[in-house]
Structure formats: structure tokens, C-alpha cells
Amino acid sequence: MKVLLLRSIPENSKVDKYQEVFSADDIGCESVSPIGFEFFNLRELYQCIQKPNDFSGIIFSSPRTVLSVKLCIEEHSSLNEWQTSLQDTWASLPAFSVGTSTASEAHSLGFKTVGDDSGNAENLVQVILEKVQPKQAPLLFPCGTMRRDVIPYALKDKNISFTPCTVYKTCPEPHLKENLQKYLQENGLPHAVVFFSPSGVKFAEAVLKELKIIPSEQCQYFAIGSTTEKAMLDHGMDISGIAEKPSPESLLKCITESGMMESRKHPDVVQEKLC
């Protein structure tokens, strides 16, 4: 069985956890990113990072938000300065992380994360509200231009202060078609295609149709989380399953429970459906 993940691979990861978990079940797993990112306002972000005592914590809503911190340190200071004068103070504050991939990136910089298994912004908000009280120092909130308003609205409603800092924008991956063509040449049509974000849905849909990587008995679509599910439904896509959390274990469970793996082991099941 072959699974195509439409996702960005974290730069600091020595081991791809999705490949690790899926290969243990004899499933081929490859990632192709449909999106790219452009970073800006990093000096403004670093000015905040230099003042950890002005904040009660930091919110990481995606791996890109962690990368923005790493980049602002590299561009406007040094990792040595971070490690000797800032890291310990930030490590004493909660770093609220929406998922395990984001948490892994944050750990590489020395942050101590909370809410790693939250899986989405709605659940992460509940974790934040358990840890932070009104009138505390604000939370630092690096974010992208296409951020959802779930976290800001919920924090404002509970009088939790936060300092947003918009530091990246999402854009289409310019080589998506070529990368998907290469994937098809090396692997053939995937049995499962997994979308990780609404942006990925938006940027990949037309290319997938052009290359005929579309839902069928041989190829099914899956979503990570309810937000991605909604985007797929808005684009008229057929969905075979929704992973509750952005983790390889949750996704593997989702695909397993869809019955797809059994149909791959027993091709006659597919033939029966076709008759």
C-alpha cells in the first residue's frame, strides 16, 4: 500500500515520524508539499523574543511559527546568544503547541511545550485557558497571514492578553506539478492521499485533477482535522476518513478503520464493489 502525504516536512527532523510509523505496518509513505512560505517581520519578532519577562508564554500554532523564531534568532542574533541568555527563561514559560510535529520543532529550540496532543486550535484554546489567567502578562503569538481567528477570538472573550506578530505568508509550491509527476513515476498511483491543511487543499486540487490523482476505488482522500475536512468539502472532494489529530498514529488508525488496508490485502473486495 502507498500513501501520499501533502505536507511540508519539518526541516529539523532527522527522522520522519510518519514514515517510521507507516513503514512499521509495511506501508509506503512519501511526502510532497503543496505549499511554500515566505517569512517577514523577523526583526519585530526578535525584539519580542529578547524580552521573555514581558510574556507569560508563547503560542505555536504550526511548525512554521517555530521556524519563524529560529530564523529571527539566526538573522538578528545568534543561536549562542539564544542558548546562553534567553533559552532558559523561555523554557520556564509554557509554549502552547497545537500538535506533535510542532512540539518536536519547539523542543529542538529548547522550549517546554504544553498541549502537544491537542490536535487543533479549538482544543489548544482549552489548554491555554487552563494555564493562563486574565491580567497575566500577554502570550506571544507568532502567526501567518492566513491564520484562523479561533485562538484570538477565544482569548479575547476570556480577557487573556496576547501579542500577535505576523511573520509569514503561505504561497503555492511552484514545483508541485513536477514533484507529483516524479512521485507517480517512482511509485505509481497512491492508494491514499492525505491533506494536512486548507491551504494544501486550495493549492493542490487543480494539479491533482490534471494528473488524475483523484478519488476512486483505487485512490482515496483523507483529511487531517475538521478544518481541512471542511475545506475539502467546500471544494467538492470525496473524503474517506478524517484523522482527529495531526499525528502518524491517528492517521494510521483513520486509514485502517476506513477498510482501505483490507481491500489492498484482498483485491477481490474491490472487485466485488465494482460489480
Automatic annotation (TrEMBL):
Family: Belongs to the uroporphyrinogen-III synthase family.
GO molecular function, one term: uroporphyrinogen-III synthase activity
EC identifiers of the protein: 4.2.1.75
Pfam families found in the cross-reference section: HEM4
InterPro entries: 4pyrrol_syn_uPrphyn_synt_sf, 4pyrrol_synth_uPrphyn_synth, UROS/Hem4
Entry keyword set: Heme biosynthesis, Lyase, Porphyrin biosynthesis
Enzymatic class: lyase
Any one GO biological process: uroporphyrinogen III biosynthetic process
Domain Tetrapyrrole biosynthesis uroporphyrinogen III synthase: 42-252
Biological source species: Holothuria leucospilota
Signal peptide: none
UniProt cross-references to CDD domains, sorted A to Z: HemD
Entry GO CC: cytosol
Reaction(s) catalysed (UniProt annotation): hydroxymethylbilane = uroporphyrinogen III + H2O
Function as written in the Swiss-Prot or TrEMBL entry: Catalyzes cyclization of the linear tetrapyrrole, hydroxymethylbilane, to the macrocyclic uroporphyrinogen III, the branch point for the various sub-pathways leading to the wide diversity of porphyrins. Porphyrins act as cofactors for a multitude of enzymes that perform a variety of processes within the cell such as methionine synthesis (vitamin B12) or oxygen transport (heme).
Gene3D superfamilies, A to Z: 3.40.50.10090
Name the record gives this protein: Uroporphyrinogen-III synthase
Pathway(s) per entry: Porphyrin-containing compound metabolism; protoporphyrin-IX biosynthesis; coproporphyrinogen-III from 5-aminolevulinate: step 3/4
